[in-house]
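Record format v2
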Amino acid sequence: MTPELLAARRIIRRGQVITLLGLLAAAGVYVIALRYTPVEVRQGLAQKIFYVHAPAAWGALVAFAVVGLVSILYLWLQDERLDLFAASSAEVGIAFSLVMLTTGPIWGKTVWGTWWTWDARLTLTLFLFFLFVGYLALRAAVQDHGERARFSAVVGIMGLVLVPFIHLSVYLFRTLHPQPVLLKPSAPSMPPEMLRALLSGMAAFTMLYIGFVVLRYGLARLDNLREGAGDAV
Amino acid sequence: MPFETPQNGGFLLAAYVVAAVIYLAYAGSLFMRAGRAMREAGRGGSGAGGP
């Protein structure tokens, strides 16, 4: 067995362990949110969707920001591993986006009275999701590995440009979406029990993101070896 | 008129179930792909699908 193959297997094993720990931590967040946080008087139990929705949004934005940053590094260093890592983070970002884009409307239906509204935050987030679906489609469509890596790096960097706009959209535009309660210049605007649950969620889903990306990256490395020299994932 | 807290536990349940299904399905798919790829790599054959 070659050293490259052993390294890929080791990365996969690490990814599996971190993913399992992340899933356990996520289950713990469910318990904390359901049992140990107060019911918000105006929104009712649906407010607790926030403890799953906000970490999913965090995970998605981190994933897409990582794609952009690693893509910049790829264009600079031309290291194929960076391209594989960016592609892995994009796929994981799609999974987190799906959670964000499904739990958000469920909350919106009961609190806003509508599943969806074309406000700036929601619309930009949907565009970002489609951009990275396009990123993966592009990778599937281009056969030459050098071109695939270069083209997708450019798309990944475009996505990175959108990320700060999405975070700041609640300040820049008139929007229905709630203002940030955590990532803002002033102190967190939440009761301590709710803040603890939110921070636990952020930590757990960040661990899950890391586990998914490491596991996916190991798989990409293994597949790269399978395709042999020159034929990347 | 006194304010009544809305009874919307069903929405909470739906959101938590949807999120769990997506995360578990993706984790399951990664574990299955990893298992298959490592078995095939061990045999010296072909393996995982790339992103």
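Confidence is low (pLDDT under 50) at residues 229-233 of chain A.
Residues 62 and 115 of chain A are 25 Å apart (CA to CA).
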